[in-house]
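anyone seen this seq b4? input:
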Amino acid sequence: MSDRSPEKATIALTAEQGRHYALGDKLSARFLADEVETGARYSISEWRLEPGQEGVGAHSHAENDDIFYVLEGRIEFLLGESWTEFGPGAFVRAPAGVTHDFRNRGAMPARLLNIYIPGGFERDMQGIVAWFRDNAMR
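predicted toks r here
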């Protein structure tokens, strides 16, 4: 008998598929895998930032590592108290407890892949979307 649980299923998505979240006009996220698909072991999302877009605000996670891989453009990351700019191919890990953020101060759009360990990030997205809607200046 095979295991047909969601976390054991293959995931294959096109560039248009996934669960999309708009955070204002210049920031969006597309979730590719989260706790339902992974048994809450990790979450994977792609983030798009238009030029001049700030990130989600400086924050830390008590129990989650945030891993980022820059796919396109130039992204500035806050790690602790310092901002550093990274280009395509850069890898950034913000371990649990480390304050972090990201932003696109460049002239071109930017994209990054995010892996959140352990999973469960998507359950916070409705609140994050509402915060951006209510604080449109970001």
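The chain has a mean pLDDT of 92. The CA atoms of residues 90 and 124 lie 26 Å apart. kinda curious what u guys think
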